[in-house]
Amino acid sequence: MFRGLPLLGFLAFLLFLIATAPLHLVWPYVKPQLGKLPVEVRSVVGTVWQARVQIANPQTGVLDLDWKLQPLSLFSAHPAADIRVQSEQLNANLQLQVSPSGTVNLSNGDVFLDSALLTPMLRKNRTEISGTLEASQLNVSISSLKPLQIQAVSGRLVYSGGKASFPVNRNTVQADVPMLVAEMALDDKGNLQLPVTNTDREAVSQLFLKTDGWAGVKVYKRLLDLTGQPWNGKEGPDSIVFEVSQKIL
């Protein structure tokens, strides 16, 4: 009954060596295998077990990515880690787990985002917004990035409210946007849908992320009514008055 103990001990020792290996020594061997990354890796500090990586790209700026492997998960087929992402405009905490099939599961996510982080993307569509976004109890299961395949998603997004400007009928209008709430869900085609409501649960907008990487937003007339914006048409509050989309993945 003890014949397997030496092998088990050797495997445990091997895992210990891998987990405690300095990341700056491992990274030069791993980097070529990853191909072209969407971000620039500026520095790596720590070990495979517990590390900090500084990354950057034009959209997000500089981010500090910290992770800590969960010890018991190393002995299973589902390695997991606690993840934290920080910058001046972003703070995110979540748990990451990878299955043998390659599915990535993000769970128990809490994200705080300053809307200034979205400014470069929004300005391309003549839109600006202030305030903060918070995501709570975020759970996402992703089986592929290209094409994007989301198997499951849940979570709640809350926008604090703030100043905004956006195009309406070829004009740019200024508005005070109230607090808004969105519940994340998948439609029958696997596209991510975020129906946005006011605090009275009335629809004001619809955000989406399709499996082909296109994201977009639809704005209903009700949002114009809430922000006190004039409208010459006879459309009802559930009519779409503004729609824009952009490929982001």
TrEMBL record:
InterPro entries for the chain: T2SS_protein-GspN
Give the UniProt subcellular location, in the record's own words: Cell inner membrane
In its UniProt record, which GO terms are filed under biological process? protein secretion by the type II secretion system
Q: Which UniProt keywords apply?
A: Cell inner membrane, Cell membrane, Membrane, Protein transport, Transmembrane, Transport
Indicate whether Ribonucleoprotein appears among the record's keywords. no
Pfam families registered for this protein in UniProt: T2SSN
Q: Name one GO cellular component term.
A: plasma membrane
Family according to the record:
Belongs to the GSP N family.
Q: What is the protein named? A: Type II secretion system protein N
Source species of the chain? Parathalassolituus penaei
Q: What is the lineage of its organism?
A: Bacteria, Pseudomonadati, Pseudomonadota, Gammaproteobacteria, Oceanospirillales
The gene from which this protein is expressed is gspN
